[in-house]
Specification:
single chain, 13 helices, Methenyltetrahydrofolate synthase domain-containing protein, about 30% helix, RNA binding, FTHF_cligase-like_sf, alpha/beta, RBD_domain_sf
Length: about 375
């Protein structure tokens, strides 16, 4: 399929690509490819171009999407002993997983780690406070143009992942973006179809070509909250945590269909996440900024509306275990009151909105085999 103007909307272009790949038997498992980032025959060969890019050679940490066409790309990252980050499917349990192969892993084991099963079994979650710096981003596409315009499968997860990485300070406008597609997926895309939240690509890898797009269009500057629905917020806990942080930083986080909510004058503002990056998994200032005290629960005069109760702690749990879990989920409180013998703790947040966000984010949190009970402290006291 030669690059040409196709369709009148993004969905028209998607449907044409999907139909063409199925009718010409270019698609590979899983099929049919409709409503997917399509896997295609020759995907592994196309991915072989990735290690030859200078951007790959100099990168230390690479984010690769979890779809089937990028399986070989994930393998090459692991084989090159670089840090591989894979977004969690549909962002249900967080943003990233860091793939950690067993020591001395052979090529066969690395290939298994690069599969969807390996991503589930050989990974550890990376929290918002990890201050990870991503050097190269590899995304899937349904269609892409030689100018760097990209169309995904229509659910917006790749664009949202990128915007969340911007909000975390993990990527910048200079971070290269690569996509791996079949030659038939390279088509003309009218620029008027692009929206401000759409990511663009710098390199297109196909089974026959490496295309440097020289794209000058700026990447998204962060999360466009007015495009985020309440339904999406409910599905994605890490998005709720990021919204609470940006709200505390004084940003407008009005959701789709909401009235504009501006920060109150004099409200405490948090330091943006982009400040003071540090290498992945290296302890940073926030490790010490969460003050932990041992003592009584909040008293009658305490601002209970901003406090969160955490119960059903394992008998052998330590305060460091809970602090680590909170950092990984991006729900670090200002202060933590630890009551280990009573199997509970209280988390103190700057205001009731941040406390409510934390309660939503921490639902289902487990320490060891125990699922913790999480509620606003006022509600728990009333019970």
């Amino acid at each position: 399929m030669e690059p040409r103007a196709v369709g009148v909307s993004k969905q028209d272009i998607r449907e044409q690509i999907w139909d063409h790949m199925e009718s010409q038997n270019l698609a590979d498992f899983p099929r049919p490819v409709h409503h997917r980032i399509p896997n295609f025959k020759g995907a592994s060969h196309a991915a072989e171009q990735l290690p030859r890019l200078q951007a790959f050679k100099t990168a230390r940490t690479i984010k690769v999407n979890p779809d089937a066409p990028q399986k070989n790309a994930r393998f090459f990252v692991l084989e090159s002993k670089k840090t591989l980050l894979v977004p969690t499917p549909r962002l249900r349990t967080g943003l990233f997983n860091k793939i950690t192969p067993p020591p001395g892993a052979t090529k066969d084991i690395l290939r298994k780690c690069a599969t969807s099963q390996g991503v589930r079994n050989c990974s550890v979650p990376i929290g918002l406070d990890s201050r990870v710096l991503v050097d190269l981003v590899v995304v899937g596409s349904v269609a892409v143009s030689e100018k760097g315009w990209r169309i995904g499968k229509g659910e917006g997860y790749a664009d949202l992942e990128y915007a969340m990485m911007v909000s975390m300070g993990a990527v910048s406008n200079e971070t290269p973006v690569v996509t791996i597609v079949h030659d038939c997926q390279v088509v003309d895309i009218p620029e008027e179809l692009l929206e401000e939240h759409d990511i663009t690509v710098d390199y297109i890898l196909t089974p026959t070509r490496v295309i440097a797009t020289d794209c000058k269009r700026p990447q998204p500057m962060g999360i466009t909250w007015s495009k985020i629905s309440r339904k999406m917020m409910e599905k994605i806990p890490v998005l709720r945590s990021l919204r609470a942080r940006e709200q505390q930083a004084g940003k407008d986080v009005t959701l789709q269909g909401e009235r504009q909510h501006l920060p109150e004058p004099g409200r405490q503002q948090a330091v943006p996440l982009s400040a003071g990056r540090r290498p992945l998994d290296t302890p940073g200032p926030e490790a010490n900024s969460m003050e932990a005290t041992v003592g009584s629960p909040p008293g009658e005069g305490a601002p209970l509306a901003a406090d969160v109760y955490v119960g059903n702690l394992p008998r052998d749990a330590r305060v460091s275990d809970l602090k680590r879990a909170l950092r990984e989920l991006g729900s670090v409180p200002l202060r933590l009151t630890w009551q280990g013998p009573r199997r509970r703790a209280f988390l103190h947040y700057p205001d009731s909105a941040a406390a409510q966000q934390a309660v939503s984010c921490l639902q289902g949190l487990r320490l060891g085999t125990d699922t913790l009970r999480v509620a606003l402290a006022r509600q728990q006291r009333d019970k």
